[in-house]
Every structure is written in structure tokens, then in C-alpha cells.
Amino acid sequence: MQRRSTGWIGALTGISLAMLAVAQPGAAAAVTRSEYCSRLGLQLDGAIQTKADPGANAREIAEATALQDKANRFCAEHKQAQGIRTLANALKLLGVTPVDLNQ
């Protein structure tokens, strides 16, 4: 009987240690695709406002805004990967490097 209880205690200890290793304090949480859509959308909003100064290329701003609308639809339809790519393309069109949240 004692062998069985020792085995269970060992198994529970191993599981506990594994859980502690996974959830270490101070470790950055992974960014979800939905969050990435939101953050790139905010970055694009700022880039469009910055580029909207007099003398800016109105065609590029219009194209970036159209891409942003398309990306927002993708993100809302749970097609975040397509939305992220579209937002990144809109940012690149304006000459802005998209933020990399994985760094």
C-alpha cells in the first residue's frame, strides 16, 4: 500500500513542478492574434494621422485606409492571420515598419 501512495505523491510532485516551470513569474505572455490585430490597427491609425499632413500622398493614405477596412473585417470574422497581413501591408505602404510583438 505504501508503494502506491509514494507513486501518487511522486506523480503529483512532478506535475506541480511542471506547472511551475510553465508559469514562471515575469515571463511575458504570448500575444494573441486578436490582440495583434488591435495593436497593428492602432499603429496604422497613428501612421495615417501622421501622413495626413499637408503635402502627403493622398493616394497612399486612401489605399492604406481601404486596406485597414479590409483588415478590420478579417479580424472581426476571426480571420486574424489575414487581417494581420493586410494591416502590415498597409503600414508598409505608408513606409512604417509594423511592430513585432514577439520580441
Structural description of this entry:
With 103 residues, the protein is mostly helical. 71% of the residues lie in helices and 0% in strands. The chain contains four helices and no strands. α2 runs antiparallel to α3 (58-76), α2 runs parallel beside α4 (80-93) and α3 packs antiparallel against α4.
List key phrases describing it.
mainly alpha; 71% helix; single chain; 103 residues; 0% strand; 4 helices
List strands and helices in order, with pairings.
Layout: H1 2-22, H2 33-51, H3 58-76, H4 80-93
Helix pairs in contact: 2-3, 2-4, 3-4
List the secondary-structure elements in sequence, H or E. Answer: HHHH
Structure summary, number of beta strands = 0
| Oligomerization status of the protein chains | single chain
Structural class: mainly alpha
Q: Average pLDDT, to the nearest integer? A: 78
Query: Proportion of β residues?
Result: under 5%
Largest sheet: none
The number of helices is 4
Helix content: over 70%
What is the overall silhouette? globular
